[in-house]
Design goal:
The chain is mainly beta and 332 residues long. 2% of the residues lie in helices and 46% in strands. The strands form five sheets. Strands 1, 3, 4, 6, 11, 12, 13 and 15 form an eight-stranded antiparallel beta sheet that branches. Strands 2-5-14-7-8-9-10 form a seven-stranded antiparallel beta sheet, with no helix packed on it. Strand 3 and strand 4 form a beta hairpin.
């Protein structure tokens, strides 16, 4: 399966905006803060606030997991920052130490400590690869793309058998700022990506539109919100097979940058009783490729479709190719 999910948080104004990709384990007074790059934002996780649980798009269980994320730690008090679970059973934990290094803990047993410290109040990119096994397990750290410790031939399972959830954590005096996340497994030879950046772009023009807008002079103006505004500005249709596709702002990245995936996202609702099918559409050249139909019923739901390559011709994405593409939605 390889890459399973990625996240940049730039579209979210409240916890509900992150569903269903994330699960709020501990509701509270969490917030978003200035992100790692540019004008974006990051999630602020602390005790009594939000705890982020990912791996919720049902990728199946795995015994080999690779995670990368940008982190900024406030405060140097010892605390967990990441836990791996099989259901509700904790398998391993990553602990931030008072010396600013990271330690892998299996219950009360330390099995690895990073060779590089992550100073508090600074952004750094952490990657972790874990093979879950009771005797032949392994763990490897990379910090800002540099190898930072590894161990193999060990027990990496406290309880459980294979990982189906990961949880980021903070403490009341130790907020964890989280940004530019990716999660994958080793299927197909997938491995460390290195420090990545998740760019978010919004519609800037109409391409071909058929839905009826609630106001304004263009359909894209109804869905270019910085944060979802639900019924304030909408496009709607009662007709099957109608769709809207839009032009998007340029990524603004180097022409030779490596693009690992593109995610298409939309907030959709059907206020009348009964479900309706929706496709997320990717258009490259003159070809529309609709993702698998999703059913929407009732309140607003965030739909997400990830493309590792251009779905039209299976070619690798390029910044120029993304800038030229159109994306949207279709009533199935």
């Amino acid at each position: 399966m390889g890459l399973v999910m990625f996240e940049g948080f730039d579209y979210a104004n409240q916890w509900a905006d992150l569903l269903p990709k994330w699960i709020n384990i501990s509701p509270g007074t969490g917030s978003f803060v200035t992100g790692r790059v540019g004008s974006g934002q990051a999630m602020n996780i602390f005790s009594g606030g939000w705890r982020a649980s990912a791996f919720t798009e049902d990728p199946g269980t795995t015994n080999a997991l690779i995670i990368g994320f940008a982190m900024e730690k406030t405060g140097s008090t010892l605390s967990d920052i990441l836990r791996f679970y099989d259901g509700t059973s904790e398998m391993l934990a990553i602990e931030y130490q008072t010396d600013n290094k990271l330690k892998v803990i299996r219950f009360s047993t330390s099995i690895l400590e990073s060779t590089i410290a992550i100073p508090q109040d600074e952004w750094h990119y952490l990657e972790i690869k874990v093979l879950f096994h009771q005797s032949a397990g392994s763990v490897e750290f990379r910090i800002d793309g540099v190898a930072a410790g590894s161990v193999s031939g060990i027990d990496t399972i406290n309880f459980g058998a294979s990982c189906d959830r990961v949880e980021w954590r903070g403490a009341s005096s130790n907020s964890l700022h989280l940004d530019d996340v990716y999660i994958g497994n080793t299927a197909g030879g997938f491995d460390f990506l290195g420090p990545v950046f998740v760019a978010t772009v919004r519609p800037t023009s109409d391409d071909a539109v058929q839905f009826t807008r609630s106001g304004g002079s263009a359909n894209y103006e109804m869905v270019d919100d910085t944060f979802p505004d639900e019924d304030t500005t909408v496009n709607e249709s009662d007709t099957s097979a109608q769709q809207d596709t839009f032009g998007f702002g340029a990524l603004g990245i180097s022409a030779d940058a490596v693009v690992h995936a593109v995610g298409v996202s939309a907030f959709i609702t059907k206020p009348e009783p009964g479900p309706v099918g929706v496709n997320l559409v990717t258009k490259t050249g003159s070809t529309d490729v609709g993702a698998e139909k999703r059913l929407v019923n009732g309140g607003y739901a965030r739909l997400v479709e990830m493309h590792l390559v251009d779905p039209h011709d299976a070619a690798a994405w390029t910044p120029a190719g993304i800038d030229a593409a159109n994306f949207g939605y279709k009533r199935a």
